[in-house]
Amino acid sequence: MFQVIKLPDDVSTYEASALLLAQVGYNGASKPVVKPGASAVVIGAGLLGQYASQVLCCRGAHVIIADISEERLEIAAKYSANEVLNCTGKDLTASIRDDYPDGVDIVLETASSSKTVRMAIDMLAYEGQLVLNGFYPGSEGLIDWHWLRVKEITTYCPNSRTRPRLEAALKMIRQGHLKVKDLVTHEFDIKNASEAYSMLLDRSAKFLGIVVNWQ
C-alpha cells in the first residue's frame, strides 16, 4: 500500500530523500530508555549509525560512535556524536571498558554481525540496553540467549517503518536534529547514476551519503 506524506515547505526533496533510512535510525534510537547523561555506544558509522547517534544525542545521551573508517568518523565527530573511536586493530570492548569499567548503559549495533553483537553485550553494564538495529541474515542472526540473561539485558529489535515514525523522523529533519545534508559525500546527476551504484558495490570506495539528482 502506498503512503503519501506531504513535505513541509521548509523541508526540501533533497533532505526528504533520506527519510526512509533516517526513520530506521530514529526507530532504533527511540527504543531504549535514555536518562540524562546516559552512556551509549553506536557500533557502525554508516548512515544508519549516524542517524541513530544523532537521535540518541538529541534524547540526552553521551554517544560514542565506533567504526574502522576514519573518514566516516570525522563526519560523525562533527555532526553525530560526542566522541568517536577508531577500532581498527583494537579490542573495542576493552577500549570502552577503559573509560567505563562497569559498562555503558546502551549499545546500538548497526554492523549486522554476530561478532559485534557479542562485543556489544560484553561492553554493556548490568541491566543495560541493547538495540539490534542492523539486518541480520542467516547465521548472523543467531545469538545465545544466555549472553543476555547473565546481565539481565533488555534487547530491542526494531524493524521496518510506520507512518507515525516516518512523520516523527521528518519532524526531526525539519528541526535540524537529523542532519541529512551534512552526511552527503557524493552527488550524481541521473545520467551518471550507474557510477553511484558502482560505488556502492566497491568496498574500497570512501563514501557515506549519496544523492542522485533526478531533474
Total beta strands: 8
Q: Architecture of the domain at 13-156 in CATH?
A: 3-Layer(aba) Sandwich
What structural category characterises the helix and strand content?
alpha/beta
Uncertain regions spanning at least 5 consecutive residues: none
- From the spread of the alpha carbons, the general shape counts as globular
Mean pLDDT: 94
State the share of residues found in helices, binned by percent. Answer: 25-40%
CATH class of the domain at 13-156: Alpha Beta
Radius of gyration: 17 Å
- The side-by-side strand order for the widest beta sheet comes to 3-2-1-4-5-6
β content, as a range? 15-25%
CATH topology type of the domain at 13-156 = Rossmann fold
Sheet with most strands = 6 strands, parallel
What's the CATH superfamily of the domain at 13-156, by name?
Answer: NAD(P)-binding Rossmann-like Domain
Total of DSSP H or I helical runs spanning 4+ residues: 9
Order of helices and strands: HHEHEHEHEHEHEHEHE
Write structural notes for this entry.
The protein has 215 residues and is of the alpha/beta class. It has a domain at 13-156: NAD(P)-binding Rossmann-like Domain (Rossmann fold, 3-Layer(aba) Sandwich). The protein is built from nine helices and eight strands. The chain has helices at residues 13-16, 19-29, 47-58, 70-79, 92-99, 114-123, 145-149, 163-175, 193-201, and strands at 39-43, 62-67, 83-86, 104-109, 124-132, 154-156, 184-189, 209-213. The chain has a six-stranded parallel beta sheet with strand order 3-2-1-4-5-6, with helices on both faces. It has a two-stranded parallel ribbon with strand order 7-8. Helix 2 (19-29) packs across helix 3 and helix 5 (92-99) packs parallel to helix 6 (114-123).
